From TrEMBL:
Superkingdom of source: Bacteria
InterPro entries the UniProt entry points to: Amidohydrolase, Aminobenzoyl-glu_utiliz_pB, Bact_exopeptidase_dim_dom, Peptidase_M20, Peptidase_M20/M20A_hydrolases, Peptidase_M20_dimer
GO terms under cellular component: cytoplasm
Keywords: Hydrolase, Signal
Protein name: Amidohydrolase
UniProt KW Amino-acid biosynthesis keyword: no
GO biological-process terms attached to the record: folic acid catabolic process
Record has Ribosomal protein as a keyword: no
Coiled-coil regions listed in the entry: none
Domain spans labelled Peptidase M20 dimerisation: 206-296
Organism: Marinihelvus fidelis
One Gene Ontology term of the molecular function aspect: para-aminobenzoyl-glutamate hydrolase activity
UniProt lineage: Bacteria, Pseudomonadati, Pseudomonadota, Gammaproteobacteria, Chromatiales
Signal sequence, start to end: 1-21
Amino acid sequence: MRANLPALVFCLAAATTPVYADEISDVLAGIDNRYGETETLARALWEWAEVGYQETRSTELMQQALADEGFEIQAGIAGIPTAFVAEAGKGGPVIGILAEMDALPGINQSDLPHRDPVDGKGAGQACGHNLFGAGSVEAAIAVKQWLDENDVDGTIRLYGTPAEEGGSGKVYMVREGVFDEVDFVLHWHPSSENWAGARGSLANRSAKFRFSGISAHAAGNPDRARSALDGVEAMNMMANMMREHIPDSARMHYVITEGGHAPNVVPDFAEVFYYLRHPDTETLLELWPRLEATARGAAEGTGTTVEWEVIHGNNPLLVVETLAKMMDQKLRQVGGVQYNAEEQAWAEDIYATFDNPSRELGSETEIREYDTGVGFGSTDVGDVSQVVPTVGLRTATWVPGTPGHSWQAVAASGTSIGVKGTQVAAKTLALAAIELYQNPKLRETATAEWQAARGESFEYVPLLGDRVPPLDYRN
């Protein structure tokens, strides 16, 4: 009789092998039991806060955690010393999980809920990549254990991906074919909410524009000088005029990274770092020469010279709704984040520091409604999604209302609040991977949707060209 059968968790599509509820319970319990390992790994990456392409200790610790669980490690891939692949299992399907690790320069904070910079520390995990790395490692370990214990054919790969923040580490990995033999890729990101909708991203290209002039005494011999800073400022003025005449959906921003050292010395070198974004890659490529033209015009008008170096470029995320809906279901199965009394008090203290918070305290327990659209951020995950069907989610690792790249995000990323959100992500990723292993109809449907979205004439083109990884871009 049906009532006498063991409880089953049925997959999304027909003609699939069901997964027994006790197997899922074991996977979730296993991740809970490894809370200490997750916390230790996340805290180490938070303390070190290593910036892009310099994540030496972080990558070694992540690799060691995976090697201890029986993964085979291939380190230093795609010409990047801190990039790696850890693999376990046998046969197919092959599922990859992305793991970021880099910190952001120029911001740091202790784990206290009030502004408390750490003296001498030049970077912080303001985007929560310490949690990203730790959660993905734990998800991969959980999937490996499930494959082993149930003798299921399939390979799990953990991709250690450096320098997401402006370094496009994954793009070099894609360009070198690191993802060529992968069937699906899963990822996640720390956030102030729990959400697994189908949202794309903006294509992005950046460059450092370097102006050279002639230095002289700014008071005694100004006529003999040609200011490189004038070149930068003239370019910025023209670029800001250009804003009126580009699509509303475009984004352009810059920072002057070198402008001189003393007011009485006309600078013979100055540098400005630009980002240009748009949802459509072709439109971005049409806008980019116009930005280059402002640099040439600025140099001509100020009697300086200019050259530029493309630093990074990301294609937009290619959304696969079939996979996004599956991930949304798995997130709802896992549920949101529950604070204890101490965490609640900490959250209330830091919540009081927000100006116009975007979400109410307490929503960390909720799962945001599934939706679609395009976000205004950019990520090198987009390039992965161009060559492999890819899906992700966000979990509430930060107090609701926390803006990314803020000191509040750094603080939460170093606490148990961050780790609890990380556990939610690890569980959701593990369940999504198991669904893909067990559900051939889902794999077929998602792959067909992805191929249709790319189009028959698709050809992958990296927006950063053929340049080598800029391993020193954070120096």
